[in-house]
Amino acid sequence: MTDADAPYPASPVLVASERPVAPSVRPAVWLAVIAVVALITNALIAAMLCAIGAIVFALSARRELRADESLAGTRRSLAAMIVGSIVLAFPVLLMAAPIVASSLFAVLG
C-alpha cells in the first residue's frame, strides 16, 4: 500500500482557522475565568491572584504571538488581559470606596 492508496492523508492538513495556539494562551484564559468565578463568590484575594496570573500569561502569550506569526490566540490573550485587569481593579475599588467616602464626608461636614 502506498501513500496514495492510504485512507488518510500522509501528513496532517491544517485549515487556516486551525493554526496552533500559543502555549500561554490557554492558562491565561483559564486563570481569567477562575478570577471571575472567584470574584463572583466574593473570594477577593483569590480573584486578584488569578487576575495577576492571567495578565502575566497573557503578556507572555502576546510576546509568543509577536515572535511567531503562525500561532493563533491574539483575541483570546487580549480578552484574558482585559478581564484580568477588570477583575484586579474591582476589589481595589471596592476596598477604596469606603475610605474615599469617609474622607469626603469628613471634608464636606
Overview of this protein structure:
The protein is mostly helical. It is 69% helix and 0% strand. The chain has helices at 25-40, 44-67, 74-108. Helix 1 (25-40) packs antiparallel against helix 2, helix 1 runs parallel beside helix 3 and helix 2 (44-67) packs across helix 3. The termini are far apart.
Notable characteristics:
109 residues; elongated
Note the topology:
Layout: H1 25-40, H2 44-67, H3 74-108
Helix pairs in contact: 1-2, 1-3, 2-3
| Largest sheet entry | none
Shape: elongated
Helix tally? 3
How does the helix and strand content classify structurally? mainly alpha
Instruction: List SSEs in N-to-C order.
Output: HHH
Mean pLDDT across all residues, rounded?
84
Helix content: 55-70%
Q: Compute the CA-based radius of gyration.
A: 22 Å
**Amount of beta strand:** under 5%
- Please count the beta strands (DSSP E, at least 2 residues each): 0
The N- and C-terminal alpha carbons lie at a distance of: 91 Å
Low-confidence stretches: none
